[in-house]
Design a protein that fits this description.
The protein is of the alpha/beta class. It has one domain: Rossmann fold. It is built from 13 helices and nine strands. Strands 1-9-8-7-6-4-5-3-2 form a nine-stranded mixed β-sheet, sandwiched between helices. α3 links the parallel β4 and β5. The two termini are 15 Å apart. The relative contact order is 0.17.
């Protein structure tokens, strides 16, 4: 495995386009915040009825079949032209406090449906539309849920999975995806996978977000996380609710709620057991890791270390800029990471 840099001055080589930010979104923070600051291209309900540049959409319910009764909700969008040979189903997995309605999920769905792909936006356990149908909550290493969701697609919606899968994970969903690929290498027909802004080292990421410069990000995320775990359908005890309300950082939230609820001794144990960096060597599916070296949340060191190891299936694509889930580049309304995803999915193996 060797890094693919989009800026020749950083070393290495790349067939991928160099990332150049679009005015006025200069710098890591403006790239990161643009998704929240700029209005969507059209209201969500319109995008659900006419995804991409015109596509059918429908709600799917995926039974996790684990005895909890929890059911994941997903939104499937298909291109208008159904006469073409079926492509693999592209499954998008959101990040922390995200869901199918997150702007990066909608933009990716819109881009790929317009290219003729069928796209499934998956809501993890307890996230977005899945909240009301789930008692429990997802976490960074909850790969059994992704496995169950893909099995449900094959079992209950067999035609969707008959051509196999393409998988794309964003931020925390990217960490989950990488761990999943290592743990279940032969379970499904997965042609390729991509992660965007995945926190390969969960502990280092939690420490970075604790820095004063990230206080507003942390406050926003923590508010969203509380809303998520208190939502309709959630199973949470009075003691857990009290601890969540008392948490003043994502680290504390993980320490007092996520870790003990899922059988970990504390946040550091949870991070150590689930960080994707420990699983990269076991991946046997062609996988592209898209990451910005100026990401305000994720330290670059884990990507530097990953690039120095040998795994012919894993390709870190590192850009100097782009922020966290930003990558809003010149001369294109389509985010740069979607252009790279398309190139990776469609190039010969």
């Amino acid at each position: 495995m060797s890094s693919i840099y989009t800026d020749p001055s950083d070393g290495g080589s790349s067939s991928y386009p160099r990332f150049n930010p679009r005015l006025p979104w200069l710098g890591a923070d403006l790239q990161t915040l643009r998704n929240a600051l700029v209005q969507r291209q059209r209201p969500l309900e319109a995008s659900k009825s006419r995804a991409g540049e015109g596509a059918a959409g429908r709600r799917l319910h995926l039974d996790l079949d684990d005895g909890t009764g929890d059911v994941l909700c997903a939104w499937l969008q298909e291109p208008d032209d159904a006469s073409k040979p079926a492509r693999p189903l592209l499954v998008l997995i959101h990040g922390l406090a995200g869901c199918e309605e997150s702007s990066y999920m909608e933009m990716s769905a819109r881009s790929f449906v317009a290219l003729g792909y069928r796209v499934l936006r998956l809501n993890l356990r307890g996230a977005g539309p899945s909240r009301a149908s789930c008692r429990l909550q997802y976490h960074a290493g909850c790969t059994v849920d992704l496995k169950a969701a893909l099995h449900a697609l094959q079992r209950d919606h067999s035609k969707l999975g008959e051509a196999g899968f393409l998988l794309a994970g964003f931020s925390l969903g990217g960490n989950m995806l990488l761990k999943f690929l290592a743990e279940y290498p032969d379970e499904f027909c997965i042609h390729k996978a991509v992660t965007v802004s995945a926190p390969l080292d969960l502990s280092a990421t939690a420490q970075r977000i604790l820095k004063p410069r990230n206080a507003l990000y942390q406050r926003h995320l923590l508010s969203r996380m509380r809303k998520e775990c208190f939502g309709r359908g959630a199973e949470i005890s009075p003691a857990e609710k009290e601890r969540v309300l008392a948490a003043r950082s994502i680290y504390q939230y993980d320490e007092v709620f996520i870790a003990p609820r899922n059988g970990y001794r504390g946040a550091e144990h949870y991070y150590a057991e689930n960080s994707a960096k420990s699983f990269l060597s076991e991946i046997r599916c062609p996988t592209l890791l898209i990451q910005s070296l100026d990401d305000p949340w994720i330290p670059e060191q884990a990507y530097r270390e990953a690039a120095s190891r040998s795994n012919e299936f894993v390709y870190p694509l590192l850009a100097r800029g782009g922020g966290h889930l930003g990558f809003h580049g010149k001369r294109s309304e389509v985010p740069w990471h979607n252009l790279c995803m398309k190139q990776f999915f469609e190039q010969s193996a």
